[in-house]
Amino acid sequence: MENRTLRVFKTMSYREKPNSEELAFGRTFTDHMFVMDYSDAEGWHDAKIVPYEPLKIDPAAMVFHYGQSVFEGLKAYLNPQGEPLLFRPRKNIARLNRSNERLCIPTLDEDFLLHALKQLIYIEKEWIPKADGTSLYIRPMIISTEPFLGVAPSKEYKLVIILSPVGAYYKEGINPIKIAVENDFVRAVRGGTGEAKTGGNYASSLKAQEVAGKEGYSQVLWLDGVEKRYIEEVGSMNVFFKIGDEVVTPELNGSILSGITRSSVIQLLKHWGISVRESKITIDELYQEYQKGNVEEVFGSGTAAVISPIGQLDWNDHKMFFNNGQTGKLSKELYETLTGIQYGRLNDPFNWIEKVATQQTMNKVG
Amino acid sequence: MENRTLRVFKTMSYREKPNSEELAFGRTFTDHMFVMDYSDAEGWHDAKIVPYEPLKIDPAAMVFHYGQSVFEGLKAYLNPQGEPLLFRPRKNIARLNRSNERLCIPTLDEDFLLHALKQLIYIEKEWIPKADGTSLYIRPMIISTEPFLGVAPSKEYKLVIILSPVGAYYKEGINPIKIAVENDFVRAVRGGTGEAKTGGNYASSLKAQEVAGKEGYSQVLWLDGVEKRYIEEVGSMNVFFKIGDEVVTPELNGSILSGITRSSVIQLLKHWGISVRESKITIDELYQEYQKGNVEEVFGSGTAAVISPIGQLDWNDHKMFFNNGQTGKLSKELYETLTGIQYGRLNDPFNWIEKVATQQTMNKVG
């Protein structure tokens, strides 16, 4: 069995914390990180919290060559009492293990990883920014580290959790974005790695994003890789359409990421008595409904933005405008409710929130 | 313009060279490596040959998270006079740049990179093993190093070339392999990254390989991601079928890697007056030809094995056996001719070989 000891080695040189008002996304990192190693002989072992510093990795490490890696993304928030909260962290850890299985990476003890994550957040709690809409972004990742050039699953891995204080996503209020349907490039295909959170999916998406960005679009809408008709995701978010009284979102099919915000949106809508349909939906079908005047709101869902309203969707020469380019009523309610729960301002009827205890017992302090 | 200076910093502690007879693939590395950095401000700069050592990379470096990386694979051989030879290195460097374009990585000056590679080989020439069939494997790679968690092309990169002495691929003579047609998993799809040499393609292939390996197969034969009918590649090799008097190989379609051994096989066959057809070929079509007794030889092509004869191909319940499970005459001739040219034992009618000068002028020796 794995060694479950978690050692802590505190930094000798604390970094200056940035001004909450000036925070961007993913550029500033905290004083400490969590690391844990895997070898075939020892399993996952040597769990420790150490000062944030560069990793020393052999240039032959497999991650550089064959991309065997997975990651997660979640956030810690401060409630009005100043206590750190996590939003559904077990869902992220469970998804990390599902990604591991697809990428042939050894799975983790989920309880231990949550324990380690909470310890890290506890130690870094002063790094959770306090300004409105800010949070501490949490990035667990696993990389293959065996120095070997054969194409095979690595026999050594490193798990790292780093933390980054991030600014409010909507500094000047929610602003609907403009999206283009992607016709040439494909993000993922059934039988591929689309539902895993692995680097290759993101690497392959960069080109389409670059082309669309030059044409003035924020993101692309991905169609399925086989028929190029079925709507899959938007940028790196899941996507929802309010068509008449019903909300439609593409069903999970193996090439779509199973978003935790997606799952929360669905649960919340059902709780509100709104009909939600998870099914296949083609771009043609969407356009037909649009022409009939039935598409009332469109939005993306993800950890970074929570809810990202889509004001315009261009499909070749067809331009679709939703809700006059304004944030819809439902999008706004979802955003307010989800962020309200995340920041502990609203009641949490689904037990989505996990508190990080403000007094923790360390196994050993180095 | 880029800074083209190449500095050399020799190691203070030379490693012991392994016994040529005991070499495996990709586990031993030489004393030095080539590194070069990219930043938006300086372009590709700070080219240097340094002692082989771990890279120090920020845990937020984009390669760990979003898989933006490319690589190449080629070999240096010793000719009977003991001079180092490279086989078509300009093709690898050109392909590296094509991979760069797909992955939004800044392209390289191809002449300078070849110059740098030759300098590295010159410095490490004692590492090229001398035993029959051995060689020095060359692995250039580029990784995205900007410490940033946004999904966007990195603004910083590191190019590294490492060298690994490798043993003879066929220690006990060529042995035909057993392959299974992959029905569930997909390696690549049109509009994806299949024709780029990037980590994600290899990461996504591991699971299928693992499943097939447990069932006793060496590799899988990949079908296209859309119709799951068209033959694409076998494992990480291109594939050829001798059907009657003609040799057929899948045409390059965007999801198939443009192999340099593949291109050399085609050129050699044409030179010999053998008809070669690059076209779509379905697994059904292959099976029909097999049933008619027309499929005489099947083989993979790649840098590692050069030619890898396939003795058995299983497609669901259909088992196909080629050339009685023996290495075919054409496979053997291709293998002997290609390796003969690579090791400088045979005439090189196509100017495929580049010599590494045995006296080089260094720009500066550190």
TrEMBL record, chains A, B:
<comment type="pathway">
    <text>Amino-acid biosynthesis; L-isoleucine biosynthesis; L-isoleucine from 2-oxobutanoate: step 4/4.</text>
</comment>
<dbReference type="Pfam" id="PF01063">
    <property type="entry name" value="Aminotran_4"/>
</dbReference>
<keyword id="KW-0808">Transferase</keyword>
<comment type="similarity">
    <text>Belongs to the class-IV pyridoxal-phosphate-dependent aminotransferase family.</text>
</comment>
<dbReference type="InterPro" id="IPR043132">
    <property type="entry name" value="BCAT-like_C"/>
</dbReference>
<dbReference type="InterPro" id="IPR033939">
    <property type="entry name" value="BCAT_family"/>
</dbReference>
<keyword id="KW-0663">Pyridoxal phosphate</keyword>
<protein>
    <recommendedName>
        <fullName>Branched-chain-amino-acid aminotransferase</fullName>
        <ecNumber>2.6.1.42</ecNumber>
    </recommendedName>
</protein>
<dbReference type="InterPro" id="IPR043131">
    <property type="entry name" value="BCAT-like_N"/>
</dbReference>
<keyword id="KW-0032">Aminotransferase</keyword>
<dbReference type="InterPro" id="IPR036038">
    <property type="entry name" value="Aminotransferase-like"/>
</dbReference>
<keyword id="KW-0100">Branched-chain amino acid biosynthesis</keyword>
<dbReference type="InterPro" id="IPR001544">
    <property type="entry name" value="Aminotrans_IV"/>
</dbReference>
<dbReference type="InterPro" id="IPR018300">
    <property type="entry name" value="Aminotrans_IV_CS"/>
</dbReference>
<comment type="pathway">
    <text>Amino-acid biosynthesis; L-valine biosynthesis; L-valine from pyruvate: step 4/4.</text>
</comment>
<dbReference type="InterPro" id="IPR005786">
    <property type="entry name" value="B_amino_transII"/>
</dbReference>
<dbReference type="GO" id="GO:0004084">
    <property type="term" value="F:branched-chain-amino-acid transaminase activity"/>
</dbReference>
<keyword id="KW-0028">Amino-acid biosynthesis</keyword>
